[in-house]
Amino acid sequence: MTSLRFSSRAAFDAALAALPGPDLAAREAAAARQAQLTKPAGSLGRLEEIALFLAGWHGAERPRIARGRAVVFAGNHGVAARGVSAFPVEVTAQMVANFAGGGAAINALARAAGLALSVVPLELDRPTADFTQGPAMDEADCLAALDAGAQAVGDADLLVLGEMGIGNTTAAAALAAASFGGSAADWVGPGTGVDPAGIARKVGAVDAALAAHAGALDTPFEILRRLGGREIAAMAGALLAARHARVPVVIDGFIGTAAVAPLARAVPGIVDHLLAGHVSAEPGHRRLLDRLGLRPLLALDMRLGEGSGAALAVGVIRAALATHDEMATFAEAGVAAA
Length: 338
Ligand SMILES: Cc1cc2ncn([C@H]3O[C@H](COP(=O)(O)O)[C@@H](O)[C@H]3O)c2cc1C
Ligand SMILES: O=C(O)c1cccnc1
Description:
- This protein has 15 helices and five strands.
- Strand 4, helix 12 and strand 5 form a beta-alpha-beta unit.
């Protein structure tokens, strides 16, 4: 269980500055076991790396996922009023109702992956401010969202982070640009499917935001607060709290990855307990994963969000642990080693 609370900006900064690492002895023991399994060394490729990753964060030679959980955070964005999405803002709340009814893609994918699902709507009736005009959130708002994220980790032993928020690919592009530089056009993409005029409005919004906040985007907290949204800050809070509880996290698409960007710019090692579930079709996503040094597990041309690609990748993660746990060693099976 995580007990981390983001009661102040200083508490957030302190949590980011003191990240625990994995249990290296457990990781070593898992590597020693891998070397004895009945296969040429390295032949299971990244499945072997995933098993070692889980071993380190779970502190177990043979890690198991018993309490996998997907959490979908939802928030509304003032910048959506600038015509940056193909869909109206009402869809955020309507999709939250759909999640509750079990009818969204993430419901089906979480069930298929054996994940519990929680949905956390964050003040949908009170959109964040339009960040082209000023900060998206005040300090208390941003802290409340970070804290909602931390509380959602619960007793999960693998956490999938998802989001729902009409307009949030524009916020994600702004976060990526503020964290890693480049022009707005480098990070903006079609999102839900805007036309070229919509892309131009998105680029205009991101450029306006970068100009409006120039000189003030100097810390992870300020980047999140000024350019993020509640669901994005909640994902950041969740992954930071998960780190302190040594819970590995699977991130999803462009928006979920953008939540990591401000933290990683200041503390690159924040990505060490993360797996990138997939690379989405949103063009900025691959670029952002590259900047973070994360290699996606899947590439299926998905561009949905909700945690959908990350939930799908849990099947690969479970398979990696199954081989690690269930395969016989050379000695057990009487197979001649190299
Ligand atoms: C029905 C529907 C379900 C979704 N589920 C996730 N998203 C995705 O689309 C939104 C981001 O795209 P944009 O920035 O273009 O608004 C986010 O809510 C994201 O999760 C959805 C979008 C729609 C329309
Ligand atoms: O990359 C994503 O997750 C994504 C892309 C487009 C729209 N919603 C989400």
